[in-house]
Design goal:
Elements: E1 11-12, E2 15-17, H1 20-31, E3 33-42, H2 50-63, E4 69-74, E5 79-84, E6 92-95, H3 97-104, H4 112-121, E7 134-136, E8 138-144, E9 151-158, H5 164-179, H6 212-227, E10 242-249, H7 252-265, H8 269-283, E11 293-302, E12 320-329, H9 335-351, H10 354-357, H11 359-371, E13 386-389, E14 393-395, H12 399-404, E15 406-415, E16 422-429, E17 432-441, H13 446-474
Parallel strand pairs: 6-8, 11-13, 13-16, 14-16
Antiparallel strand pairs: 1-2, 2-5, 3-9, 3-15, 4-5, 4-7, 8-9, 10-17, 11-12, 16-17
Helix pairs in contact: 1-11, 2-5, 7-13, 8-9, 8-13
């Protein structure tokens, strides 16, 4: 999505101006959406391996120029630029047991890793009051947990420099570097040299072109449809907001059944997750309300493989695009039927390159909403009910995890500015599905969102069991 007057190929002596999508993230992060956080729970004392951790981070900065860049803001021109420093500079912030206790106090039945993740999601170095003429895009912290020999290592990044693919590669490369005994033994493929261009400058020729009439019609359609979308009930639309998280976990057996159901219907997991979200949200409405409702679903897809030239997952930055679909729910829908319908609608849009041709339109509308919150219901800045990723991250424990003492990890991005009501970050880890569900608080309460994801889980597990029962009947 291009922002008028923004062209990332305009270079500084050691960097470039941000592209249109990146510019939108610079605007969104100021309001609280797009603070990406990776939090790793480790049983190995980082103090013992601090030189290795710091060295690994510096090697990542050397190999991925965007990580050793700073965002420069020009207030007179209202523009942002990545300016790359010649050498790595990241410093690791330490939190001792006492300080960590203060962060964790007052909340029960939530793990320390979960609470530290939420804490970091709401540490905004890029607000309008704190944004100086130059600001880092990555910060590192280590938290010592009270009463146990465990620590949480956290990386917090600006979304303009980090989409989900970047976050996944970053974590894997960091763990690999830390696990190497002899640092010369292993090379990791990275994009050395200059920062890669923005997504808009790498699109295949002609795919994003529209006539002025077509662009106007599409933007009007998106605008009108957004006013008709149904939202979850807002608990408190006036108080200042922050990001909270609910974790949705499945065991390996249930995960296998759900994935089997997806495979049998030729769909991806994103279709089932989104369908479960819509069914659960609709069932949460008043029992006396039997009217059909229209809901918005955003599916995020990684564009690296279709760019010119194609990029790998080791090219750090933001290279996702979004497809917005609307679906009418009457009540009583079956999970697999709705999931198939929703996934088909998404793939139909994608096959027509709507994720590329509508990029500028959605970016423009996102900017207008940020500038005029009153255009959204209750000034909530909600763009849709739920967002999902087209492809699920698949991860397996390995010797590197053991060497570094990894016990658990969580990763997601903040969403209390402009965003959906619930953003789902899904990972299949050692065969079990783990979903980090992000939402704005107190616009939605923790109890409300916990009930929603519990309903989603029941819907998905029941649907998975029905797949097995149906297969048994056939056999």
């Amino acid at each position: 999505m291009s922002t008028p007057g923004v062209n990332s190929q305009m270079l500084h002596s050691n960097g470039r101006v941000v592209g249109g999508t990146e510019h939108n993230w610079c605007r969104a992060v100021v309001g609280g959406t797009g603070i990406a956080v990776l939090a790793v729970l480790s049983s190995v004392n980082p103090d013992m391996h601090m030189p290795r951790l710091k060295n690994a981070l510096h090697k990542l900065q050397n190999s991925h120029p965007i990580l050793r860049s700073r965002l420069h803001y020009n207030p007179s021109a209202n523009t942002y630029s990545f300016v790359t420093t010649p050498s790595p500079f990241i410093q690791i912030k330490h939190f001792n047991h006492s300080t960590t206790c203060q962060i964790l106090q007052g909340t029960q039945n939530i793990s320390p890793l979960h609470l530290i993740l939420e804490h970091e999601l709401n540490q905004n170095a890029w607000t309008s009051t704190s944004f100086s003429t130059k600001t880092d895009v990555v910060f590192a912290s280590v938290y010592a947990l009270p009463g146990a020999s465990r620590w949480v290592v956290v990386l917090r990044l600006h979304a303009a420099a980090c989409d989900r693919t970047t976050a996944v590669s970053l974590l894997r490369e960091l763990l690999a570097l830390m696990a190497i005994e002899d640092e010369g033994e292993k090379e990791i493929t990275m994009n050395e040299g200059e920062i890669s261009l923005a997504i808009e400058d790498l699109l295949p020729k002609g795919v994003a072109k529209k006539t002025l009439w077509a662009r106007g019609v599409d933007m009007l359609t998106y605008s009108v449809n957004s006013l008709r979308l149904t939202n979850l009930k807002f608990k408190d639309a006036k108080s200042p907001r922050s990001t909270q998280v609910v974790r949705l976990l499945f065991n390996a057996d249930d995960t296998h059944k759900i994935l089997s159901g997806c495979k049998a219907r030729g769909i991806k997991l994103c279709g089932a997750l989104a369908a479960a979200g819509l069914i659960a949200a609709h069932s949460s409405k008043s029992r006396s309300d039997h009217q059909q409702k229209k809901y918005g679903v955003v599916t995020l897809t990684d564009c690296r493989s279709i760019l010119e030239p194609p990029l790998s997952g080791h090219h750090f930055g933001f290279y996702h695009s979004a497809i917005l679909n609307t679906h009418t729910i009457k009540g009583g829908e079956k999970l697999w039927e709705l999931a198939k319908k929703m996934y088909t609608a998404f793939t139909s849009y994608k096959s027509c390159n709507r994720h590329l041709s509508d990029m500028a339109d959605l970016n423009f509308l996102m900017c207008r909403a940020m500038e005029n919150p009153g255009l959204t219901p209750s000034s909530s800045l909600r763009t849709c009910l739920i967002s999902v990723f087209e492809d699920t991250v698949v991860d397996e424990s390995n010797d590197q995890h053991k060497q570094v003492g990894v016990e658990d990890y969580m990763g997601c991005a903040s969403a209390h500015g402009i965003a959906p009501s619930i953003a789902v970050f899904d990972t299949i880890r050692d065969g079990a599905l783990d979903c980090i569900c992000v939402y704005p608080w107190p616009l939605h309460s923790r109890e409300q969102m916990q009930e929603l994801v519990d309903n989603m889980k029941c819907i998905l597990v029941d649907a998975g069991n029905n797949v097995v029962d149906h297969e048994n009947q056939i056999s």
